Amino acid sequence: MSKGLTGRVALVTGASAGIGRGIAAGLAAAGASVLAVARRGELLDTLVSGLPTGDGRKHATIVADLAVSSDVDRVISVADGRGADILINNAGSSVPAPVGTGESVWDETFAIQFHTPRRITEALSPEMRRRRYGRVIMLGGTLEPTATPNASTAAKAALAVWAKAFSNAVAADGVTVNTIIPGRVTSEQMVTRLYPDPGERARFAADHIPVGHFGEPSDVAALTAFLADPAAGYLTGAVIPVDGGMRRHAF
């Protein structure tokens, strides 16, 4: 892989497993130093121990709960001190919220999946703008109606709309802001919570995914590494699905 990110520092939230872990590995392979954030420190340790080094790369872990304000402050402080110029807002998982779901579920979901990424982005962007280089990438969720209400879907939709507006405000200073919408990607959440039966996954893919199979974290990581690269400087404010064609609308 090209090492176009050599000398860059990337903060990746939700990096302990699944898509976040794949993105962290992809950015490190492209030359970046990775600051990996998640609650499960032991998984972060195994991630960082396996990342490539050399070319000045210095990886680190930050064990934090992004629903806790003081932990968010600490993540911002560490990332700002390291001069992070790539931010991957990935933390969060699907949170079904049928009618009657308590307010605490909505509050916590929006805290982690809207307010925290917005807050980290706003905190790190002044230095990105000063250096005239920054890449912010949101990991979003489906923007199409779902069968039942989902708090995560609502929070991610809000984040995508906010990210588009924010991208306009910082574009002239060399900072791009884009949103990736993963489809069905093989991850801990997919295989343990949502589709534990391999037969069910195969049937879903055959019925709903034109390419015929679930994706892998590396599929999302490849696009993320490109969006983080200097070569992607004219691509901002976009919402890009990586879903094997599952999205139904044309525009």
Automatic annotation (TrEMBL):
It holds the Pfam family adh_short_C2. InterPro entries: NAD(P)-bd_dom_sf, SDR, SDR_fam. Belongs to the short-chain dehydrogenases/reductases (SDR) family. PANTHER family: 3-OXOACYL-(ACYL-CARRIER-PROTEIN) REDUCTASE, 3-OXOACYL-[ACYL-CARRIER-PROTEIN] REDUCTASE FABG. This is SDR family oxidoreductase.
